[in-house]
């Protein structure tokens, strides 16, 4: 039996970004959301980026999560080429601990929106949740899985510190 077609795309600027972006993938897998993960560099593979972003709608994606570090142009360039919501995850860089990535992603010009998340793992997880929430607007069963995930998260918090 064939796997269902991806509805969320996770892209990252380099293979080293997987350490951060895998958290978005793991969250989507836990929610049983079909997704794909690709390495696409805005600077080193611009034609791959162009092809990916331009074909995203016709391939059935409903949102894209784009993670990048340093200059972090991947989320913004992706958003400039698709009508889909793009959620940017700043990947922590060595030089500036991800502040360079964050500022690059969040400072988009008017008309090219990128929903910008926190630097690193938390941002990747939250990007997965937001992308799943977008998909759930057309999928009530996914909405129920998100509700169950959130309930389990709430119930996992102890009342007492010990």
Describe what this molecule looks like in 3D.
With 162 residues, the chain is α/β, with parallel strands linked by helices. The chain is built from six helices and five strands. The protein has helices spanning 18-30, 46-55, 74-79, 99-106, 121-136, 140-155; strands at residues 8-12, 35-39, 63-68, 86-90, 115-116. It has a five-stranded parallel sheet. It is globular, with a radius of gyration of 16 Å. The mean pLDDT is 96.
- Shape descriptor: globular
Instruction: Report the end-to-end length measured between terminal Cα atoms.
Output: 47 Å
Task: Round the mean pLDDT to the nearest integer and report it.
Answer: 96
Q: Which residue ranges are poorly predicted, with pLDDT under 50 across at least 5 consecutive positions?
A: none
What proportion strand?
Answer: 5-15%
- Largest sheet, strands/sense/barrel: 5 strands, parallel
Helix content: 40-55%
**Major sheet: order of its strands?**
2-1-3-4-5
| Total helical segments | 6
Total number of β-strand segments?
A: 5
The helix/strand series, from N terminus to C terminus, equals EHEHEHEHEHH
Based on CA atoms alone, the radius of gyration comes out at: 16 Å
Helix- and strand-based class?
Answer: alpha/beta
């Amino acid at each position: 039996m064939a796997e269902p077609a991806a509805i969320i795309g996770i892209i990252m600027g380099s293979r080293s970004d997987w350490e951060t972006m895998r958290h978005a993938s793991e969250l989507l897998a836990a929610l049983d959301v079909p997704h794909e993960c690709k390495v696409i560099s805005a600077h080193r593979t611009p034609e791959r980026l162009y092809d990916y972003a331009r074909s995203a709608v016709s391939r059935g994606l409903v949102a894209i999560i784009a993670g990048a570090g340093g200059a972090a142009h991947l989320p913004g360039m992706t958003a400039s080429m698709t009508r889909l919501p793009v959620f940017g995850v700043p990947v922590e860089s060595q030089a500036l601990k991800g502040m360079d990535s964050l500022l690059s992603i969040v400072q988009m010009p008017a008309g090219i929106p990128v929903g910008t998340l926190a630097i690193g793992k938390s941002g990747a997880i939250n990007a997965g949740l937001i992308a799943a929430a977008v998909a759930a607007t057309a999928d009530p069963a996914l909405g129920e899985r998100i509700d169950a995930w959130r309930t389990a998260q709430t119930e996992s918090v102890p009342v007492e510190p010990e």
